[in-house]
Amino acid sequence: MGVEGCTKCIKYLLFVFNFIFWLAGGIILGVALWLRHDTQTTSILYLQLGDKQAPNTFYVGIYILIAVGAVMMFVGFLGCYGAIQESQCLLGTFFTCLVILFACEVAAGIWGFVNKDQIAKDVKQFYDQAFQQALMADSDASNGKAVVKTFHETLDCCGPDTAIGTLPALWREDLCPKAIQKVFVQNLSCHKKIDELFSGKLYLIGIAAIVVAVIMIFEMILSMVLCCGIRNSSVY
Hints:
- This protein is an all-alpha fold.
- It contains seven helices and two strands; from the N terminus they run H-H-E-E-H-H-H-H-H.
- It has a two-stranded antiparallel ribbon with strand order 1-2.
- A hairpin with a 2-residue loop joins strand 1 (48-49) and strand 2 (52-53).
- Helix 1 (6-37) packs antiparallel against helix 3 (57-85) and helix 2 packs antiparallel against helix 5.
């Protein structure tokens, strides 16, 4: 015997929420793949200075997002099917998966909050080391100049915070894009451009995480109410 009355409304409401959750998982997966293959980030984070690789902290977060998006799509499908079939077993499994996902999201959120400035800081330190090597007399012996040029061309910037106006003209012409060689303004600082690059992407990830967390809370409540309604209807 199927559920009736308000419980039936909850059944279809849970189906709608799960469909939205499934779509959200697909969006997160798509955004994560876009961030993974974004031209700006890949151009910078694939760089190698001598034997030192560019910091990969950002990609750790991206791989976590890819896994979360894929799991969300699976759990969303499980919830939709469980709601339509009125299966207590599937709904219980769905609820358990949601609790685990919610706990993982909270843990990832704490990790992201703690490391939100560290990602840009690590990349800026990597850039500064390459910049110092590029200014050395024997810079041709290393790939520091090539690394700095990649930063400048990708981010459309020229030098760290304090070096734009003091950079010798000869080196400036060699290291900086021609379009900005004669323009010395604060917003051309590579440090500032690096901050903007990663803070904008982390802001996007944060908004998606908050929306998903709200949906998950509603789904946990609805799944338990529906599960209890199915159990009560089977008694009668």
